[in-house]
Design a protein that fits this description.
Belongs to the polyphosphate kinase 1 (PPK1) family. Residues 128-305 form the Polyphosphate kinase middle domain. Catalyzes the reversible transfer of the terminal phosphate of ATP to form a long-chain polyphosphate (polyP). This is Polyphosphate kinase. It catalyses: [phosphate](n) + ATP = [phosphate](n+1) + ADP. By secondary structure, this protein is of the alpha/beta class. The chain folds into 3 domains: 11-314, Polyphosphate kinase middle domain (polyphosphate kinase like, 2-Layer Sandwich); 329-504, 2-Layer Sandwich (Endonuclease, Chain A); 509-685, 2-Layer Sandwich (Endonuclease, Chain A), CATH 3.30.870.10. It is 37% helix and 22% strand. It contains 19 helices and 27 strands. The strands form 4 sheets. Strands 14, 18, 19, 20, 21, 23, 24, 25, 26 and 27 form a 10-stranded mixed sheet that branches. Strand 12, helix 13 (412-425) and strand 13 form a beta-alpha-beta unit. Helix 3 packs antiparallel against helix 9 and helix 5 (127-141) packs across helix 6. The protein is globular and about 90 Å long. The model has no long low-confidence stretch (mean pLDDT 93).
């Protein structure tokens, strides 16, 4: 058995974080050919693959490019790769992913043709279609277009992040010219034409291309092609010395609009001649490298398929069968507060409704006995009922304290807006902790009862967002347990005042404490296994990247502990390696809902411990964020959650397993009864 830390740290025992993420996106894309998904949903997965990749480039690849540009040669902690090596490997794997995505898109187009729905190429338009396209151009598109010529008096224009642009080569009396036309995101991407029982789908860029002469009268169009730029969103927020973080965030959002170009995509469908010279020109102006140029024989940005699915839905195409989250029967005729006086309440979204969480805050806001409400907000919806309840409470004299995490990436503007609204209503607003993101999901309600003050808490694995609660699997606990409530009270006082990290009784709070606690739990599992031979760990999370956690899991595997990991996304651990991780299995479930709950279970020779958490086993969650892990104290609830974990371990239709070579393969029933964890839970909670 390999048992020394030097050997366990060998790079061959780890996967690179970025390549593992690309593997995850590949699994998402492959859902486009899963026959258990309706055609509409298959198209949606292709769209998700594109939006995922955009964010990956704007953040992860952008950060590596910055390091490479500055000559940083510091290697990553697991594979020992330099930034330049990582960028090279990312490019290699991602090009294969993109090729596969567009190959599947071509397959989906053929399937749609069987339903008389056609993506009609400009080269195949008949006269009637040209006439309708001309009308669309003149009435719905042309007024919103502004061509930008490029010459000594008209500099190269700013190209907005993610916006489609047409690059146009034209000439007049033998003199060549260049122009660029941005296509406003306020315009539709797809324009349907109905004819003889058929639906023809025209891309806006194709319509503009067909009538370019109308925009450049007196000039001859040589050729044109569509391109798109993604920009760096991985800008550092300068917290040091800031007097007002709100103003810092506003400045940050302005700067992000002009981030450095990180990817250039070229649509080569309509360019009849080689465009190498123009690509070189764009590369030079945008300062991107050859590896960051993607030449695609297809429409750019497949998130446009969302428009297609909306259209098809209106024509009677069906997606997943409708499902209404179950509202717990025990809450039908009583207040949630009456119930949690007697017992803890466990909620599993989206199978169970998020409404009880909203009621928990709304009832408190309307109760004259309520003294204060405290809540952490990371990502909330645009029209959040929770925000409205908090504003109502503040307006009615209840002390409302809300930590609004302004540094929640891509939600900064939304959170700035809500912070202002809450502050205007009279709530006390906290902006987080210096140098850390507050990712915890916690609510504390304090009431003045006849017997004295009484505290009630909600803790969860997901955001206080009723919209994503319909799309993500998450878990939450509502409780009046005195020790738990005291811990949550101490937690909020730590955030709002000045004190060292409290000594919690039940909670474990990062930075550091969650990782320390889990390492202690693994140590204990190893020791008990050596005595009783029944060591067992099950953990479900979004991503596993933290090297200290991986080393400890390898150590447990070497000791013989059975470890079952359910990791939706990135997994830097490699299972099944003889002498290293042969007692570890890793699976990823990609289904109708995005798996988001974090669950950590330790058998401990029958004295089981089970935690729910806002934290993944990622270094950023362990040492760079304020996170909470909380125990499930009720044995019946613990058994229930454990049964859910086991259901995911039995899934043989939506699960992918990772092998010792670092390759995922999708499971199939192979003659056994098909089991989908998500579908089983939907069936369980359906009327």
């Amino acid at each position: 058995m390999v048992d020394n830390i030097t050997t366990l740290g060998d790079p061959k025992y780890y996967q690179n974080r970025e390549l593992s993420w690309l593997d995850f996106n590949s699994r998402v894309i492959e859902e486009a050919i899963d026959p258990t998904n309706p055609l509409l949903e298959q198209l949606t997965f292709l769209s998700i693959g594109s939006s995922n990749l955009d964010e990956f480039y704007k953040v992860r690849v952008a950060g590596l490019q910055d390091q490479s540009k500055m000559g940083v040669n510091e290697v990553d902690t697991k594979k020992q790769w330099t930034p330049e090596k990582q960028l090279k490997e990312i490019t290699k794997k991602n090009r294969l992913n993109v090729e596969r995505q567009y190959a599947l898109f071509d397959l989906k187009k053929k399937e749609l043709e069987e339903h008389r729905v056609y993506f009609k190429s400009i080269k195949d338009w008949i006269e009637e279609e040209k006439a309708e396209a001309k009308r669309l151009f003149e009435e719905e598109i042309e007024p919103a277009l502004t061509p930008y010529g490029i010459d000594a008096y008209r500099p190269f224009p700013h190209l907005s992040d993610g916006v489609l642009h047409l690059f146009v080569r034209l000439e007049r009396t033998g003199t060549p010219f260049i122009a660029i036309i941005p296509i406003s995101t306020r315009l539709k991407r797809m324009y349907p034409i109905s004819r003889e029982g058929q639906t023809l789908l025209l891309f806006i860029e194709d319509i503009i291309y067909a009538f370019l002469n109308d925009l450049f009268k007196g000039y001859t169009i040589t050729y044109s092609f569509t391109f798109r730029v993604k920009r760096n969103a991985d800008l550092e927020i300068q917290e040091e010395g800031a007097e007002d973080l709100l103003e810092v965030i506003k400045d940050y959002l302005e700067k992000r609009k002009n981030g450095r170009a990180v990817r250039l995509e070229i649509d080569e469908r309509l360019a009849d001649i080689p465009v190498e010279e123009d690509i070189e020109y764009l590369k030079k102006e945008l300062m991107v490298k050859k590896r960051d140029v993607y030449r695609i024989n297809g429409p750019l940005d497949l998130t446009c398929l969302d428009e297609v699915t909306d259209l098809l839905e209106s024509k009677g195409f069906e997606g997943y069968p409708s499902f209404t989250p179950y509202y717990p029967a025990q809450l039908e005729n009583q207040s949630i507060y009456s119930l949690i006086e007697k017992q803890d309440v466990f909620l599993h979204h989206p199978f169970e409704s998020f409404e009880p969480v909203i009621s928990f805050v709304k009832e408190a806001a309307e109760d004259k006995r309520t003294v204060s409400i405290k809540q952490t907000l990371y990502r909330v919806s645009k029209d959040s009922p929770l925000i409205e309840a908090l504003k109502y409470a503040a307006n009615n004299g209840i002390q409302v304290t809300v930590l609004v995490e302004l540094k929640a990436r891509f939600d900064e503007a939304n959170n700035v807006h809500w912070a202002k609204e809450l502050e205007e209503a009279g709530a006390h607003i906290l902006y987080g902790v210096k140098g850390l993101k507050t990712h915890s999901k916690a609510t504390l309600v304090i009431k003045k009862e006849r017997s004295g003050f009484k505290r009630y808490v909600h803790l969860g694995t997901g955001n206080y967002n009723e919209e994503t609660a319909k799309q993500y699997t998450d878990m939450g606990l509502v409780s009046s347990n005195e020790e738990l409530a005291q811990d949550v009270s101490d937690f909020f006082n730590y955030l709002s005042g000045y004190s060292t990290q409290p000594n919690y009784t039940l909670l474990h709070v990062s930075p550091f404490d969650i990782r320390d606690r889990f390492i202690d739990n693994i140590e204990k599992e190893i020791q008990l296994h050596q005595s009783f031979g029944n060591g067992h760990i099950i953990a479900k999370m979004n991503s596993l990247t933290d090297k200290k956690m991986i080393l400890k899991l390898y150590e447990a595997s070497q000791a013989g502990v059975k470890i079952e990991l359910i990791v939706r996304g990135i997994c830097c651990l490699i299972p099944g390696i003889k002498g290293i991780s042969e007692n570890i299995t890793v699976r990823s479930v990609i289904g109708r809902y995005l798996e988001h709950s974090r669950i950590y279970y330790f058998y401990h020779n029958g004295e089981e411990e089970l935690y729910l958490s806002s934290a993944d086993m990622m270094t950023r969650n362990m040492i760079k964020r304020v996170e909470i892990a909380f125990p499930i104290l009720n044995s019946e609830l613990e058994k229930h959650i454990l049964s859910i974990l086991k259901l995911y371990l039995y899934d043989n239709t939506k699960a992918w397993e990772l092998n010792a070579q670092g390759v995922y393969h999708k499971l199939n029933p192979q003659g056994n009864k098909p089991i989908s964890a998500q579908q089983t839970l939907i069936d369980l909670f359906s009327p």
